[in-house]
Amino acid sequence: MDALVAGQQARRRIRPPEPLVMAASPTTPAAFKCPISLEVMRSPVSLPTGATYDRASIQRWLDSGHRTCPATRLPLASTDLVPNLLLRRLIHLHAATLPPSPSPEEALSQLAASHGEPAAAEKAVRSLAAKIAPEKGKQASVASAVAADLDSTVPALLSFAKGGAGTDARVDAVRILATVAPEMVPYLTRDGTEKRGRVKMAVEAMAAVLSAGGVSEDAKKALITALVAGDLGRVVATLLAAGPTGVVVLEAILTSPVPDADVKTAIADRSELFPDLVRILKEAASPAAILCMAAAVQVRGRPARASMVRAGAVPALALAVAAAPTAAAESALMLLVEAARCSDGKAAIAEDAAEVAAAVMGRMIRVGQMGREAAVALLWLSCCAGGGERKMREALAAAPEAVGKLLVVMQGDCSPATSRMAGELLRAVRMEQERKGMVSSSYDSRTIHVMPY
């Protein structure tokens, strides 16, 4: 009996609570993140719809004229922002459970030691990126840490930016590079073959910064200001020698509002500019080379157009029209239009008439509206304007489906000027085909003036 009572008392005994085990790095609850910025909220506030946002993010939304809730899309009866004190307290309590954030130097060491471990590398990059957020005011400490050893930190960041990480993580790496990009400008003007590795590293970092969508415009302007402030001639020569990557930087300089007109003119007037751009275009089929040519022509006008033709750009651009991605092909077509506006350019196009006509007609329907109109303008300038060039008319008449493709352009949503030029080209093609005996007897050439609507 005593044993039974003792057993029942033991069962009734309350067990001591088990110790609470806290994860080493608890994940941040989704409710703590602002729906707009996707960052942990610093000052959570609620709208009348009940949705909560970080104050800075929702204030920017409202200041831009919006009067709807970003999350629910419901109209706002009021734009009053009510502080969510409970959520703010919970965020602070959660932050206290997180391990201390590593210093910039520690994060860089972790990045350097993370070979073959993408998760560790991404964690280090995220930690650094969090410290350069505008509201945290720690950008200088990150820049100082990276600049202390550019030769090892920049390659590590570049490798991560080009690796298999997610898009946001890659952009974070480039944003970190942007804090020190101006520090690398002197690498472009130093002598010595032993500096080639540093030049390549610096150019790659600058191209990544200037072509990234997630880098602030202020950071890009700071880099371009540093590039044009020193020995501009040597900077341009080094960028051209660096090939397609360097041309990305040069094109960013020519299209940026930062340099004044004199600086851009000085770049466009350099004797080696177009020959080097043509070389790069031929060797690497670089879209950046096409864009850089277009920027130089935009800056300098007729002199740059003549320099481009003399450098042998016409056959290189014809190849780009045939094989480049759509945007680059459209830019190449517009550059050929510029070339056709001068006598030397028209002669150069006629010299390669078969290649130019085949490339243009082969791509005319496979570009956007702007590209189609540029193609028609190029052919009209070459075949019709001022009497045109017979070689181009013969090449166009021999191109497969030339009549059909011109009719397709006319039937599309083209401008009146393009429609008129296409009509004149149709007449020129049919006359040339009749002269060569290429026209079927069943085709009534007298109806060529009728608009095909």
TrEMBL record:
This protein's record includes keyword Transferase: yes
Nucleotide-binding is among the record's keywords: no
CDD domains according to UniProt: RING-Ubox_PUB (cd16664)
Gene Ontology process terms (BP): protein ubiquitination
MF term (GO), any: ubiquitin protein ligase activity
Catalytic function, reaction form: S-ubiquitinyl-[E2 ubiquitin-conjugating enzyme]-L-cysteine + [acceptor protein]-L-lysine = [E2 ubiquitin-conjugating enzyme]-L-cysteine + N(6)-ubiquitinyl-[acceptor protein]-L-lysine
InterPro entries, A to Z: ARM_PUB (IPR058678), PUB22/23/24-like (IPR045185), RING-Ubox_PUB (IPR045210), Ubox_domain (IPR003613), Znf_RING/FYVE/PHD (IPR013083)
U-box domain ranges (all copies): 27-101
Pathway: Protein modification; protein ubiquitination
Enzyme Commission numbers on file: 2.3.2.27
Alphabetical keyword list: Transferase, Ubl conjugation pathway
Main function: Functions as an E3 ubiquitin ligase.
UniProt-recorded name of the protein: U-box domain-containing protein
Organism: Triticum aestivum (Wheat)
Organismal lineage: Eukaryota, Viridiplantae, Streptophyta, Embryophyta, Tracheophyta
